[in-house]
Amino acid sequence: MSADNTPRVTGLGGVFYVVKDPEATRAWYRETLGIDGTYGPQMAWADEPKANPYSLISHFTDDEYIKPGEGGFMINLRVYDLDGFVAGLRAKGVTVLDTADEGFGKFAWLLDPNGVKIELWEQVAEDLPE
Fold first, then answer.
1. How far is the CA of 65 from the CAs of 68, 72, 99, 117, 118, in angstroms?
2. Mean pLDDT throughout 14-24?
3. Domains and CATH numbers, the chain
4. Which of 22, 36, 77, 125 could form a disulfide with 104 if both were Cys (CB 3.0 to 4.6 A apart)?
5. Which pTM was predicted?
6. How many DSSP H helices and E strands does the chain contain?
C-alpha cells in the first residue's frame, strides 16, 4: 500500500458496455476466463488502500447509465481522495457532470474529449454492497 496521499487515480475500476444478453456474457467470462462476481466479472486489486478492491466488467441492456457518453460504454476509474481529485479537475477547467455519495463509495462523472463517459469512484466502506 502506498503512503502517497496525493489525490490520484489508483487503477481501473471497470469498463461498462451494452450487450443484448448480460447473463450469457457473464457466463462466458465465468466459463471461458474463470472470472465472476456479484455485478459481473471482477478482479482483485492488491495495491488498493481499501479492503476488497476490484475491477468490474458490468453489463447493461441499455445505455441509460452511460448517457451522456457516446459509444455504448463507460470507463470507471478508482480514485484516492475523490473530493481532492475533483477539485483539481475543476481547477483545470474540466466540467464535472455530477457527483454522488452512495455511502459505500463516492462518485463523479465527466466526459473525455471523444464523448466517452468517465466514472470516478472512491471506495469509502470496507465492505461493499452485495
1. 8, 10, 14, 10, 11
2. 86
3. 8-123 (3.10.180.10)
4. 125
5. 0.71
6. 2, 7
